[in-house]
Each structure stands twice: as structure tokens, then as C-alpha cells.
Amino acid sequence: MRARILVGGLAIALVAAAGCSPGEPPPRRTAKSPEASSTPAAVRIGAKTKVAGLTANYHGTKNVSGARTARVELEDFYFTPTVLRGRPGQRMTLIVENESQTPHTFTTSDKQLDVQLQPGGIARLAIRFPRSGNMSFFSTGHERQGMAGGLTVSGPIAKKAPTPRATSR
Question: Of the given ranges (56-60, 77-81, 99-103, 159-163), which has the lowest mean pLDDT?
């Protein structure tokens, strides 16, 4: 019995030591690091969290900086990924697919996009990331159920998207 406890304790100590390298402290997240400011900290998949001012059912963050296309799946009352991180003013094509059994929209807070997708529907949508901060997207009529997400380029992801102003293009 005593030998089992000793072996078990030794195994735990070895596992703990393997995760730590001597002389190197673990990386720290600070309020100024992009990871800390633009990704929901320690949010588990499926949890509710604030994204661009809306409550969202969180299903991941994807860095799309420099990409020309990205895929977003519409599920039963959530988006996968929930947050797309890009560069200020970045233009790209979103391939949006409704994988649920319910019609949904992909609507941006600045009204760049407002597209309805039937179950199984796929759309290729041209989008432009905000020049700073965040821009929310959601499914009209389902945002109160947490079907929301965000495009982010800087700052805290929970911060509400600015109210769109009329601009000439």
C-alpha cells in the first residue's frame, strides 16, 4: 500500500515537473498583449460571453489576418468560429454555411451584410473588417438566444461595436 502511494506521488511530481522548464517562467498575458485583449479569456466552448457588445454562445476564435477567405458555420443558435480576428480594414470573402435545420441570417452591425440562408444554404460574402475595434454579426431574430459573433482588429472583444455612420464609398 505504502509503495503504491509513493509511486503515485512520484508520478504526479514527474508530470508536474515535465510541464515546467527550469529558468523559464510561463508566458504571462497582460492587458496590452493582443491575445489578452482580443480573445475571450478562458471561455469554454458553449459558454455565453460578450462579443462586440452582444451576448454570444462562444464556439472559438480564428485568426484570419492576411487570409483571403474564411469559413463561418451557422449552427443551432451559434456561429463557428464566433470571433474572427483580422487586420484593420482587411477585405476578405466569408464562406458562410447554414448547417442547422433553421433559417438564419448573417447580418453585420454596420449593415454591410444582411443575408438569409436556408438550412444547408451556402453564401460567399465580401466583407471588410473595421478600421479599429470590433464589429458584431448576428442572426436577426436569434441574437437574444446568443447567435452572435464578432470581427475584431483591436481592443477588448467584449467592447460594443461603434454605431455605424453614413460614409461615401
Answer: 159-163
The three three-digit cell numbers of residue 43, written as one number: 471561455
The span from the CA of 14 to the CA of 101, in Å, is 49
Strand 69-74, strand 91-98: pairing: parallel
Higher confidence at residue 36 or residue 94? 94
| DSSP strand pairing (83-85 vs 61-63) | parallel
Grid look-up 454596420 returns: 110
Q: Is 66 exposed, middle or buried, given 0-12, 13-18 or 19+ CB atoms closer than 10 A?
A: exposed
φ, ψ for residue 13, nearest 5 deg: -65, -40
pLDDT category at 133 given cuts 50, 70, 90 is: very high
In DSSP notation, 61-107 reads EEE-TT-SEEEEEE-SS-EESSEEE--TT-EEEEEEEE-SSS-EEEE
For residue 22, cis peptide bond before it (omega within 30 degrees of 0): no
SS3 18: helix
* 60 Cβ contact list (under 8 Å, min separation 6): 45, 80, 81, 82, 83
